[in-house]
Amino acid sequence: MIFTQVQNRHKRWYHILSVGRKKLFLLMVAGVFFAVALLTVIIVYSIRAAGYDPGQLISSLPGCTLYDSNQRPVATLMAHDNAPVTWNELPKGLVEAFLAREDAHFFEHHGVVYSALARSVLHNLLSLSYEQGASTITMQLTRHVFDLQGKTLDRKLLEIMLAQRLESRYDKPTLLCQYLSRIYFGQNCYGLREAAHTYFGKEIKDLNIAESAMLAGIVRAPSLINPVRDIKRATKARNDTLQRMRELGYIGQEEYEQTVASPVTLSEPTTQEITEPLIYPAMWVNTELDLLPGIARERGHGLSVVSFLHEPIQQHLEHAIQETLRALENPQARYPRAWQDKGDAEKNFQKLFTTVKRPANLQRGNAPTRHGKVKLQICALVVDARLNHRGNVLAVACGRDSTDGINHWLGEIKPGRVAAPFVFYSACLPGRSEQHIVAHSAHITGSRLGYGVVRSTLSEILPDVDLPTRENAQDLYDGLFSMRKIDLARLLFALQNSGRDYRLQLVSTVWSNGQRLLYAADRETPPREILRREGAVAVSHLPPFRYSEGLPVTLHEELPENGGYWSMVCNDRGVAVILWCGVLDAAGKPAEVTPQFRKLLSHATENLAEDLHTTARRMLREAANKS
Predict the structure, then answer these.
(1) How far is Cα 286 from Cα 270, in angstroms, rounded to an integer?
(2) Same domain, yes or no: 119 and 236
(3) Among 328, 386, 482, 623, which one is most buried in terms of CB atoms within 10 A?
(4) DSSP-derived 3-state class of residue 521
(5) Contact between residue 263 and residue 118 where contact means Cβ atoms under 8 Å apart
(6) Is there a single domain that holds both residue 33 and residue 109?
């Protein structure tokens, strides 16, 4: 038998690794490639990060600026205190609460925790999602300061480099204070100072452990779990933060149990003090922005809001309202231009103006209404009714004086006979041919149709209104139910536009601080029908509307229970003016005045609406001719 002796191969050092020479070579190549790639990424993103100015951190916190239709700035939208939080006013427990919730190693790392980042990357790869971001407080701050958006690898790498730049430039207390000055806390609160005032009615230095833990707990989902919106979820977020503080040794077991058991005490809602004059278009836009999806969280970063506001029309509206108010309050005031050139009617009106005795308790001027006094208020809207522009608000007044901070369009009235078209509309719907009888009176029409038919129709178009019960059916037909002025204006405008819901909007586009388009008004999609076209068209010229061929449609009615006067002037493919004028007491309730003064108020409201309509149409034509 022949045995072949196998030569004993010489052991090389790389045999220890159990790989061959070829595999080792490939590993070395891969390592070099990875190192070069990593170095390239670091260089590229370092260069990109160098293009950002770290000085933006300590510049004034961005506000929101409102622009008119010609791109000119006209107002600041955010009236809250933007003063940065200072280190000396932060309680120890509050700092620990935010560290426990957001970044336990904040005072140890240099902007990035690489171990947490690696775990996050591994988890996201395994789950094929972006569930974890591993962001430190400094990294979150860079997103606020430099307007970094989107969950992408590119943003994350840039965020890491910028965080390290901020860490090398500023100390930890400065970074934490800037973070707390900018983050969103829900309920339109930007920054810790405003959140402390809004939720607890306290200064930052006076916040206790429980309150601090709640504020720290809600920042990850402030719109959903703030204590005003959902006290149970906010309390759970507080308790989760307290548990984390206990685990980190910030508080002991006894303090944890006592704090968890403590009740949540929120401050009573109060009227926000206005720190700077807010013109009414800004107030309207603030309300509108709250309803736009995805905008609320962005408002703390600074926004540019381009509106449909026509500044010359707005200026005329404000001037005409003040002139009318002065004349109503004082017979020695200058006779308003809007009341002139009315033919024979003007002689009677001028006599009324000079002879009617003003109420003894009528307060003049714009100071807050004193107890026992009553004050005149006026709301006005000038709305574009042209094709492709319908529903765009050209000018707005939400009261007589914007410094009171009250949007009177959101207040409620009883529409009375102004709601008659919607009762008539109930009789004009398909399938009701046997009931297609519209009497001059909504009371008679409603009685013929029956409570169930009228209530069913009004429930569809007024879903949020508490309508009278069957026992009070006559109140339903007579419009003796409460609804917001703005909802009535929207429905009347829809009625004059074949039932289409042209949303009364002032906001055209919204841009971020980094010039990203966040919102654009949709001018292409036809608005939905909230009123059936055939029914809306059938009643759009019936009383209480007044119509003559070639003239605008008008409406002018006294509202029940001292509710004031409602006027509307509208022409197709032109301009619509909607106006309310009334007298309110110190509590904001309708106040009774003499019949003579009501007559003067009626004439003034009707003439003001006509003047605003005529002037707005003229200004739009002039602007169109110039362009």
Answers:
(1) 18
(2) yes
(3) 328
(4) coil
(5) no
(6) no
